[in-house]
UniProtKB/TrEMBL annotation:
It comes from the Bacteria. The lineage of its organism: Bacteria, Bacillati, Bacillota, Erysipelotrichia, Erysipelotrichales. InterPro entries: Transposase-related, Transposase_IS66_central. It holds the Pfam family DDE_Tnp_IS66. This is IS66 family transposase. It comes from Catenibacterium mitsuokai. Residues 1-121 form the Transposase IS66 central domain. Transmembrane segments: none annotated. PANTHER family: BLL1576 PROTEIN.
Length: 123
């Protein structure tokens, strides 16, 4: 596996960094995070949650980019740091961690909004 670690550092990371530079130049982005379990993660029990964050250009973009970023937690500083050079409209599920990103207009996903109404219907 050592060759993969070296290849990642030498070849893949510069490509992902360039993709990130291009992505934050977009006017509209999608962002979402989902919990995952990582076995034998240092300092965490095997059943604890970690998160995979995804940042994506919109479907209509001429530069389709998706970047997945692993983080051991769901802290608001994760999207704030990733999106610090972005100054457009961010489409997300409404997670509060996206709300305090400087120079970003938040637009929330209609599917998530609909779900809240649907869940409230039986009440």
């Amino acid at each position: 596996a050592n060759w993969l670690i070296i290849a990642s550092r030498e070849y893949f990371i510069p490509i992902v960094n360039r993709m990130h530079e291009i992505l934050v130049e977009e006017k509209y982005l999608h962002a979402d995070e989902t919990p995952i379990q990582v076995l034998n993660e240092p300092g965490k029990p095997a059943t604890s949650k970690s998160y995979m964050w995804v940042y994506s250009s919109i479907r209509e973009s001429s530069k389709p980019i998706r970047i997945f970023e692993y983080k051991p937690d769901r802290k608001a500083e994760n999207p704030q740091k990733f999106l610090e050079d972005f100054n457009g409209t961010l489409i997300s599920d409404g997670y509060g961690g996206y709300n305090n990103i400087e120079d970003v207009i938040n637009a929330y996903c209609w599917a998530h909004a609909r779900r809240k109404f649907y869940e409230a219907l039986p009440a």
